[in-house]
Amino acid sequence: MPEGKPVILYVDDDPDYCEAMRVILEAGGYEMAEAASAEEGLEVYKSRRPDLVIVDLMMEEVDSGTAFVKELRLLGNTAPIFMLSSVGEGMSISADYASMGLDGIFQKPIDRATLLKVLKTKLGR
Asked: In angstroms, rounded to a whole number, what is the distance separating the alpha carbons of residues 20 and 6?
């Protein structure tokens, strides 16, 4: 983690969620890098090397989020990765998210307090 604010890469094709996430993250002391697609997310990831990644499950394709996570693994990513989904709670119960390369799943709409608590635990601030 470079000096300064930890960088969170948020990948989601919904501009309203991007704006809401930016407000939460910046108020929490984080810097947000964003991308509107999995492909754009990979480019931002390579240029910014974020401290943590949050990706929406379904974007331009149904499996865009999971494909993005697989690509991050191939790039040797070591940053924690969280999936954001409207089926998050059900998915975390029925799926082995660790085997998918994930550190956890957040439910949409995201709970601000839960998000910031998890970020603090994972990033130490």
From this structure: 18
